[in-house]
Amino acid sequence: MVNKANLTRAAENDILMGRAVPYVSRMKYWSNPSVKKSVCLFCSLGCGVAFRCDGDQAKELDYDKENPVCNGALCPRGHYNIELLNHPGRLMTPMIGKRAVAWDEALSFILQELKQFKPEELGIVLSSNASNEDAYMAAKLARSLGTKNISAAGDPADLEAWLGSKYEVPGAQLSSIEEIDNSEALLIVGDILVRSPVLSQRINKVKYGKRGNKVIVIDPNKTHTAWFATTHLKNRPGTEALVLAAMVLGKEADLARISELTGLPAQAIEKAASDFSSAPTGTLIFSPGANKERNDLIGYFAKILAARSGGKKQITFYSFGNTLGVNSILDREVEGHAAYPELIKKIESAEIKSMIMLGEIILGNKIRHLKFTAKSRFFADESPYETEVQLPLASQIDGGGTYILADGRQAAPVPVTPQAGAKTNAEIVSLIMNTEFDRDKLQAEAAASLAKGPVQAKIDQREAVKEVMAIKAGPDRPAENITHFGNNDLVKRFFWYRLKAGELS
Ligand code: SF4
């Protein structure tokens, strides 16, 4: 279907004359065409995405074939990046309740409301898709308000895995995306292709790269990832941490008991451990998930196992683009800040009465417990509370920023198109704090904070083993479908919009 809003008079004439306007050549009708590159942050793989622009307006999506992460591929979610820019429902002006207001009015209203609450009654929550600069400014705001009630929001399984990623493991090394291709053995925990489908090309490359290469998948279901497996360990649901602990402990483990708990034959666990360890090169890939138990311990044993399997590397993929950056900065900048589950409990018990929520779709219906909320969003809430303030939010595509992806790479997308009424979270917080917004200085400060690394945590291995031995298998659950939206409520909006507009009928 041709979107006429994107076409020049010349193109319209072509259509009127019955001449075809093929998708790939529409740029020739634009007065000032160019292709600009950015990055997709719908998951922490961070594929390159390109936009065909006319002047400073991004009109169409393109594929970044030179991007070494995705080689021009995008998953279904990645395609929605263009719609985030041009969606008709995008919030472009601040709102108090259902009333559109000027920025000044919205900001004075927020400041006046915040004064009604004690510091411990205030909270801040930040999307794990936010930039490092957003996180740094949010931390500054928390300190100025005198509250430690600040946390990143996101997939609860990811946040649990993030806590586990901080457990100290000597010799643990993070893998790069490119190193996955060069592996002769992959050990994959969970269905990574639901989260980051573009990785399928790399997994395929390992599987068919060389005779004898191994792809070992630990998952209770025959998932799309398991479909690639040369060995599929079909464990009982929730026992992934236990399987990994058994692989770490080898003969020292109570394999008979573990076999009973996991539903896997002891020999299968031993063989998988030996195959992974004996491969000259290999990577352990972890995809956290709600149907797993103790994602933190899975991450912990994954790190030990990779390090002890001939010094192999491991990588965890998160479902939000900047889980690593946002959490690391909050850890460093607000010592002893609340973890997300703690924040939720405080909201439910009315200990926290007022929240600043930076990013789309966070906290869900938990806000009904609150007396005041100010939130930045891409899309207006359809039924806001009377005193709720909504501020239009810029994404990485129109707002830029820096982000830390799953393998520790920094992405620094340059805005491809003007912000058109929206602002980044960092700009919004500067306005609330009434401080000057200096992008370069802020970027340097956020980088300095990240350079310190996340605050490490200690765990006793014997304690961890005791904890995994106590895990009971959960009920069976069907495998997730690869075309689903990866638990990302934001992209569902695009889908439903297209459905309503009849594009998918
Ligand atoms: S795999 Fe992740 S980063 Fe790549 S296009 Fe899909 S959602 Fe975006």
Task: Name the bound molecules.
Answer: iron/sulfur cluster
Average pLDDT over all residues? 90
Structural class: alpha/beta
Helical amount: 25-40%
Low-confidence segments, ≥5 residues, pLDDT <50?
Answer: none
Q: What is the spatial order of strands in the main beta sheet?
A: 5-4-15-14-13-6-7
Radius of gyration: 24 Å
CATH topology of the largest domain: Rossmann fold
Report the span from N to C terminus.
12 Å
Q: What CATH first level of the largest domain would be assigned?
A: Alpha Beta
Number of domain modules: 3
* CATH architectural label of the largest domain: 3-Layer(aba) Sandwich
Relative strand content = 15-25%
Largest sheet: 7 strands, mixed
User: How many strand units?
Assistant: 17
Instruction: Please tally the helical runs, counting DSSP H or I stretches of 4 or more residues.
Output: 20
Shape summary:
globular
Describe the structure.
- With 505 residues, the protein is α/β, with parallel strands linked by helices.
- The protein has three domains: 1-30, no CATH class; 95-154 and 322-451, Rossmann fold (3-Layer(aba) Sandwich), CATH 3.40.50; 160-319 and 459-469, Dimethylsulfoxide Reductase, domain 2.
- The chain is 37% helix and 15% strand.
- The strands form four sheets. The chain has a seven-stranded mixed β-sheet. Strands 10-9-8-11-12 form a five-stranded parallel β-sheet. Strands 1-2-3 form a three-stranded antiparallel β-sheet.
- Strand 9, helix 9 (224-227) and strand 10 form a beta-alpha-beta unit.
- Helix 4 (132-145) runs parallel beside helix 17, helix 5 (156-165) packs across helix 13 (295-308) and helix 10 (240-249) packs antiparallel against helix 11.
- The protein binds iron/sulfur cluster.
- The site of iron/sulfur cluster has 14 residues, from loops.
